[in-house]
Amino acid sequence: MKTLGETLKSAREEKELILRKVAAEVDIDQSLISKFEKNERKPTMEQLVRLAKFYGLSEKKLTINWYSEKIAEELKYTESTSEILKVAEEKIKYYKTQANGK
């Protein structure tokens, strides 16, 4: 399983691009992209979409990776993570039902 940063770095390396070139094309600072690749910082959703389009990666898969890392980071030292995730999923379904009913 690759981290988001590893996925972005692999995509850049497969295209044999240097950070400076990617930064110019997607209008994101070179040092930020480097931090994304090293998992030192997470891109915003807007930046993630730009990178996905530029690299020809699945926006959906990158978004799933982005959110899953955010959740994993938050819960990594918490007990009962499976139970927390189950309850969260139930709450999401409830919220969607409430939103659709309005």
From TrEMBL:
GO terms for molecular function: DNA binding; DNA-binding transcription factor activity. Keywords: DNA-binding. InterPro entries: Cro/C1-type_HTH (IPR001387), Lambda_DNA-bd_dom_sf (IPR010982), TransReg_Diox_bact_type (IPR050807). Residues 8-62 form the HTH cro/C1-type domain. It comes from the Bacteria. CDD domains: HTH_XRE (cd00093). GO terms for cellular component: cytosol. The keyword DNA-binding applies. The keyword Cell division does not apply. This is XRE family transcriptional regulator.
